[in-house]
Structure formats: structure tokens, C-alpha cells
Known about the structure:
Distance between the termini: 40 Å
Largest sheet: 8 strands, mixed
Number of strands: 8
Strand order of the largest sheet: 1-2-4-3-5-6-7-8
Helix content: 40-55%
Order of helices and strands: EEEHEHEHEHHHHHHHHEHEHH
Shape: globular
Amino acid sequence: MTDITALFPGFEERTVRLPGAEIFYRIAGSGRPLVLLHGYPQTHAIWHRIAGPLAERFTLVLPDLRGYGRSRGPAADPAHENYSKRAMAGDILALMRSLGHERFAVGGHDRGGRVAYRLALDQPDAVTHLIAVDILPTLEIWEAMDADAAISAYHWPFLSQPHPLPETLIAGAPEYYVDHTLASWAGTRDLSPFSPEALADYRALLTSPHGRTAVAEDYRAGATYDRAADREDRASGRRITAPMLVLWGEDYVGAGKTSPIDIWRRWAADVTGVAIPCGHFLAEEAPERTLGAMLAFLEDRPEVPQ
């Protein structure tokens, strides 16, 4: 991977060994604990523009998800459980417990948001606040998939194909693939929102054979294990109990036919939301507005009692 230390002045670099995974993370600050999770095709570098101000108010933990970036994950398994959001959420719970935090706020962008909401569903006593950045529930995405959605979100069915199809095709031009993905989802439709250091880190993810497999397994789990887990929760009536903030880009999730707030209220008891005028990458395209919305939510909303 690349050296992005300069993007996180004052942060410590650490690694924790867990059953099945080795998780790299950065940590800084003091106060109430907050862990933020990145998405695809990225690393924890996505938070670099808002990490400093957050660390002034919170104990901020920024991990790479298993198999992404500097973290390592297990081998793939036939049921795709090893890269399920439940397994990834278990990593985050174990990481935070290793730091002495029984309860903490969690936020996530893209795939990290899916890990965050799975953690809130599976471990409600651990999560004080939940922030979902530019995502909708996994089951809702698959159920709403029509021709238009399949074209605009082609990577969902593509990356879910059996090994080694997506890994092999991406390996032919990994940097082109990353650049195309990032530019097509940014509001500017180019790479201008991304710092050179962060962009190099994202390119390195899919240049690595390990990273390509982890990413594909993440999406294969989304099509199988994660979708089934969501379906079970919906059938049982289990809902997210922590106060939830939904942030979305007006030019990405916000461009859908249904309000993200209305969809998330099917899944959570207490939901507020803010639309940000940008594309998919809120913390990099609109850091000041994203930071302001997060701080207002985290500092104004009371914790749900244990």
C-alpha cells in the first residue's frame, strides 16, 4: 500500500489481530468513542478531510475493513460468510472492545455503512449512534433492481459473479477500473474530489490480488449471506434502535425515486437525514457540510439507555 501518513497528522497507526482477520486502524483524540468505516473501492483514507476536527471532540478510530487496504482477511468460503457484513461487524466490535469501549458511535460510507447498520442490528447494546452515508439497505437494493438500476449499479451483479471472473477482468486494468468507478460516482464526474495520496491508496487496493478477492467476496456476500440476513430481520420485525442519521448525496442515492429517509424508516425506529449537494463521496466532495451534519447529530442526540 501507499504511504498516506501525511493525511492524518497526530494519528497513531495500529494493528489488532482477531480471529480470521488482522485489522489496521488509525486512532486519535479523546472523549466519546466514534468509529468510521469506509466503502468500496476505497480505504480509511476517505475520512482524511474531516478526521482532524472529529478527533478534537471524540476518540476517533478509522479502520480498514477486512481484506481492504492494510487489513487482511480470511480465505473465501463457499457460503461467503467470511466477508459478510456480520463478520466485518464482528471485527469492529472486537476492535472497539480491545480499546476498552463497550458502547460507541459508528458511521459508515458505502460498504462500511452496511457493516455499520448490521452492527447496530446484531449488537444494539453496543451502538449509541448510527450514521449511514449514501446507502440504502442491501435487501432494498436487490429487490428494487430493475433494468435502469442494473445499468447504473452494474458493479453489484458484476462483482457478485463466481470467482475468478471479476478478479480476472479487473486485474487486466485495475487503475483504469478504479478511476472509472470513482469518477462516474463523483458529482463532478472526474477525479478532482480526491487527493493524490488518497487516490493512490484506492488504486493500490485493486492492484493487489488479495484486495481484488476481498472486494469481490464482499459483494458476493451482499448478494447471498447479507441479503438473507436482512430478510430474516425484516421478517422478524427486528429494527435498528439506536438514533440514526442518514446522509446522502443529491446526485447519487438522492437521485432515486424514493426518499432515503422513507426507506430507512422501514428499518429503524429513530431516523433523521440530511441531503448533501454532491455525488457519492460526501466526506471528500463536501467535507464541511458532512462534518457539520455529523457533529450536529452526535452532539445533540441523546444516547439510547442500555
